[in-house]
Amino acid sequence: MLRVCLPPLPPFLFAALVVSGLASKALHIALHIRSLPFVYFILFSPTLVLPDLVVIAVTRLLLQFSSPETRLQWISTYIGGFLSLITWGASSIQFGFFMQTGAEVAWAASNSFLSDPAAMKILLSGITTVSAAATALGLVAFLVHSRLYNFTGLGLQAIRDLCVGSLEARHSIPTFSSKAWVASANPQSLRRITVAAAACVSLLFLELVRPSVPYDHLSGALPLTLLDAFRKTSATVDSCSVAANPFPFGLPPGFQTNSSVADPWSRPAWLPQNPPAGFSRWHLSPEERLRKDNTSACGNPQGKLFDPKNDPLKISNLGGEVLEPLQKAFKDHSVHVDHVVLLTLESGRKEVFPMQQGNYMFDALLDSHRKYKQDQAIDELVRLTPVAQMLTGERATDSKGQQVNLSHAQWQDSAKEGMGGINIRGAVTGSSLTFKSLLGSHCGVHPLPVDMLEESGLEIYQPCLPQIFKLFNEVKSQANSTNTSTNALNYPWKPVFMQSITDDFDRQNILNDHMGFEETVVRNNLRSLYGKYRAQGDEVNYFGYAETELRPYLRDLFDEAAKNKTRMFLSHITSTTHHPWGTPDDFPEEQYLGNQGDVRHTQMNDYLNTVRFVDGWLGEVMSMLDEAGIANKTLVVFVGDHGQAFAEDDEAVTGTYENGHISNFRVPLVFRHPQLPRIDIAANATSISIIPTILDLLVQTQSLDERDSEIASALLPTYQGQSLIRPFVPAVERHPMEQNYTNAAIHARYSPEEGPRVQPVWNFGLINAGGSMLSVTTANDPYRLVLPIKDGFEYTFSHLLDDPGERKRMKAWTLKDLIKSVKPKYGDEAAAWLQDAEQLGKWWVVEQRRIWGYQES
């Protein structure tokens, strides 16, 4: 009979805690060691493991067992065993997460996932690597459990004997003379006491003098750090302290600081009596507006309600003329926009929309092939996204320098030569978390800098596109109770949202409702027995189905828009390009990377196959518009929600979660219309420019009636983004008020005596999950700062002209240390820019909390 020899439970549990805790600490330090000064690290390293040693000692005492057993001993054993299992599990999760992404788990954000059933599927997707890590840690614990348990026990006993022996020695002496006690003490015991006291004093001294950043963060020990998961902490300072956080560079003369109080507020003439949600700040009476401002922001004089007159970062280009190529098309009245489609590309990296030579990602893919196979690899890669080539006008070339033949594409562009729409090169996302990104594209607002979609419980501070279209409908219904006009300008708008995956994740269904969508088609519709069309295939990832399951719903919607006198606004999110990058069973997968069997290329190859799948789906959508006969009257906007980092971009960290790499931020942005001239615009814009551009296009193409055009024109200047049918303004000159300067270095750079200050367009991007780090760039500078907005994260600088792929990023735990590294290489200008970026970033974080009216509960 085979007998399995199991270790005694308390020694094994104790060994599991020690092995797991110390392994987790080693991983934690290793992930940050490059940014630690070597001498300081060696000096303070004993303090980093001190909390772990305390946890180990306490757990060893709890797991002490002896005979006879008592109830107290059982209780302590249960407590010690619980701590050991928790530590073992948490360490396994950390190693599993690291093996998947190269990053570490932030326990403070984990409670948002654990409380969301849909999010749990994301966590369970990594169960294989977590199980492997748990097995490895358990095996090591099994091998060392006996010796480790006994050795630690002997050590604690020696400490006890040392302390007890010294006390007994003191109390055995009749006099309290220190000389007498020393004379009577055992020399060996005295030496031990002296060494122990010196060690304790040294540790205490190092603990007191070490810098809090980053050593407090690095010294955190399991299972104590798990408490962060149950503690809801603010990512910024208290939202009531805005008065103590003025705009860092001063304000131009005459700039209003509280227009809602300084100016008498009057209800706009275009606003109907009962406007839809999203227009509350116009709908309030002057008394209600003032009261809401004062009570919603703790009495702060700036109030809560967003007012574009008070936005010191807003730079408008509405005073500029419409781009010259567009002027002729508008004068000829050849452009009509009856319908709007907003297509959001999940994990839509600009480098794959379209895939073409000449960027760092393409070069990285080629490097995976042997030299003699690279021409073949080029020809395969440039054929990956033919539809994206036609939509953007960015035609790829093959290994022979010839333009790629796109006859194999799912859809063929019928637009005339030189026509097709506006392609933006240089766009970046406002957040690498999908739903926070949607707030920019659908509502023209910046997201809230806290983890996950807390915005779903707050009022969005600008009207979203569905709400604007519903306002147009409300105005028409009041003007004409019965509408029999055959003019499309009088038809009602119908906002519809579609995706083939769940809308339960992170409260997306609530967000959709807040944005104004009354009709949605999501996974529940595709699975329902009572749904109009049920899904025919299997789910491709933990969120839901492939986009092709929406085909019949889209056909019906497009046919209705063509025949039933409605104006369609469709928002559709693709999802197949989301991790784990699965495709339908009947979709043929290709091998795009070399080095067959190299594990590090597997994820990138899976992603590229889903990119090809989605490119084909976009072709289907465009073909359905053609078939319905509405393509020439439909504006289709393509935008990526965020990018996706892989090992080919950064060997250290992959994915989007708490990863500030630039590959997670560059996204495509295209305004497609077959009657618009083909225009390429280089602009470091974000998705907050989408609504201003759409409204401007609707007005300029006379695609709205007189009343709707008046409303759109009035709304246009209230949005923070610029209209991209006019020349993009990357910076303006402003004269700062000298008395508002608080930083000597900035004062020296922008002194009024030296003339006006150039204020650039500042782009801010939240890094998934939203409350830890902020990406800061400007439209007229090549610099980029990843700014930590809570403890435990590093400052990161990159020069995007010198290093477009961010292979040589510079990191430090403080801005001062980062500037010391940046200044010798990039000069005083880069150093001054970093100071500006940090101050603006910190100001922006607090300002967003005020605008959103967000306060921790």
TrEMBL record:
Gene3D superfamilies: Alkaline Phosphatase, subunit A. InterPro entries: Alkaline_phosphatase_core_sf, GAG_Ulvan_Degrading_Sulfatases, Sulfatase_N. The chain crosses the membrane at residues 12-33, 39-63, 75-98, 118-144. The keyword Membrane applies. The keyword Transmembrane helix applies. Residues 421-698 form the Sulfatase N-terminal domain. Keywords: Membrane, Transmembrane, Transmembrane helix. It comes from the Eukaryota. SUPFAM superfamilies: Alkaline phosphatase-like (SSF53649). PANTHER family: SULFATASE, SULFATASE N-TERMINAL DOMAIN-CONTAINING PROTEIN. This is Sulfatase N-terminal domain-containing protein. It comes from Penicillium alfredii. The lineage of its organism: Eukaryota, Fungi, Dikarya, Ascomycota, Pezizomycotina.
